[in-house]
Amino acid sequence: MGPIMSAETRLAEKLSELGLDMPPAPEPKGLYRPLVVVGDMAYTSGHLPVDAAGRLVTGRVGDDVDIPTATHAALLTGLSILATLRGELGSLDRIRRLVKLLGAVNGTAEFTEQPAVINGCSQLLADIFGPDAGIAARSAIGVASLPLGVPVEIEAVFQVEV
């Protein structure tokens, strides 16, 4: 077995594999902090899907957004969460484990595939932090609308090294 790769190395490899660039850490869209650390726990605010240029992905799943596009939006949301963590903590290598993930999907009343959409973020975090530390308790819920018309909003709780 080879050397254990750091989360930062796995992220760089995943970005290369996907042909993506890291988005900028998002600026708050209201009166809140993107990340609050209490003891060894880090709580993210809800993050939205942005591309590397900082543009929001918008739309409603089951209407003008299909499942693959929404799943990719969830992956981009996961990258946004990682950008916030990296910016606030200095390195993703301070993450011990993902504890909880909550994903909200802006979908039509008939849309019921919320877990499949949020898997875009869940798979990214599992790839970055590994199958033990990167898979957590999770909820995926459907909502009638989300801020700025995005298809997904995701928040997470991580245990971190202090």
Verbal overview:
- The chain is α+β, with helices and mostly antiparallel strands.
- The protein has a single domain (7-19, 34-160), classed as RutC-like (60s Ribosomal Protein L30, Chain: A, 2-Layer Sandwich).
- Helix content is 34%, strand content 22%.
- It has a five-stranded mixed β-sheet, covered by helices on one side.
- Strand 1 and strand 2 (41-44) form a beta hairpin.
- Helix 2 packs across helix 3 (114-133).
- The protein is globular.
- The two termini are 29 Å apart.
- The relative contact order is 0.24.
Could you name the CATH class? Alpha Beta
Count structural domains. Answer: 1
β-strand percent reads 15-25%
* Straight-line distance between termini: 29 Å
- What characterizes the major β-sheet? 5 strands, mixed
Radius of gyration, in angstroms, nearest whole number: 15 Å
Unreliable spans = none
Q: What would you call the structural class?
A: alpha+beta
CATH superfamily: RutC-like
Strand order of the largest sheet: 1-2-5-3-4
Portion of residues within helices: 25-40%
Kindly report the CATH topology: 60s Ribosomal Protein L30, Chain: A
The helix/strand order is HEEHEHEE
Mean pLDDT: 94
Shape descriptor: globular
The CATH architecture assignment turns out to be 2-Layer Sandwich
